[in-house]
Every structure is written in C-alpha cells, then in structure tokens.
Amino acid sequence: MVINDLKLIQAAGWICDRFALTDVDNRNWESEYYGTTTLIDKRLPIDKVFRVHYETGRERDGLFVLCNTHLESLEAEARLRPSQVAAVARQLHSPEAYAGILAGNCNAIQPFHRTLQIENDLKDAYLELGGQEDGEGGYTWGHQVPRETR
Predict the structure, then answer these.
(1) Cα separations in angstroms, 5 against 10, 24, 114
(2) Pairing relationship of beta strands 61-64 and 67-70 according to DSSP bridges
C-alpha cells in the first residue's frame, strides 16, 4: 500500500462509517512510501495493534490486529520468508495472544515455502476447510507480477 491508497480509503465515506483504520498516515511504516494497514470493523473491540518489521530491504512487515502481512515476494529475497513467518508465529503463539489470523500476501514462491506453516505450527485455513493444495480456489486473486520482474 502507498500513501495515496490511504488517502483514497479515508475519502470513501462508506469505509469511514464502518471501519477503523490501523494507520491514517505513514508514520509507523518502515518506509515513507510503502506499508500495510488494516480496516477493522467498528463493531469489534480491539485493544492492541502492533507492527513487527521484518529484516528485509523491501520494507515488509506484519501488522497485528489480525496479522496483515506482505511477506517477501521477490525470488531474489525468497530466503527471507522463513524468518518472516517465524517472527509472525512467535507473536501468534505468545501467551498474550488470545487468537490469531495471518492474512495478506503469503503466497509460496519457492518449493520450500510450502512447508513454512507446518514448521511454525500454523494451520492453513483453506486446507483445513477442505481445500486442495494447488487448487484454483486457493490462489490469490487479481493481478500477478510477471515472472521476469520478480
């Protein structure tokens, strides 16, 4: 997400009427240009929101309400994903966490990414609910970056 996305979200009355935003500006982002935010239904009583910055050159992080993340997605930096998932898992498994959901860009881009949830004692909701590995229903929707630009 970039700062202009935040401005668009805040300009949409229906969003502001129904959701609280975790970020209204880029103050807590690793970079002034790129970050994550989450819309939270105003009916949900949220006590705490926090962010874990990953060790990466691409300003990736995990934003914890539910954990809304963008794991490293470039093949050249794919080695960073295991430590990013481990950092998320430590937070989700901490005694202070009542429950947790990891969401966002978690697509497996290397064969070794396919076991990260198992190695970190996480469950894939899609598979737990009967989805099949590599089934069309489990893929992220929308525009995908061409392979040559990863």
Answers:
(1) 9, 10, 31
(2) antiparallel
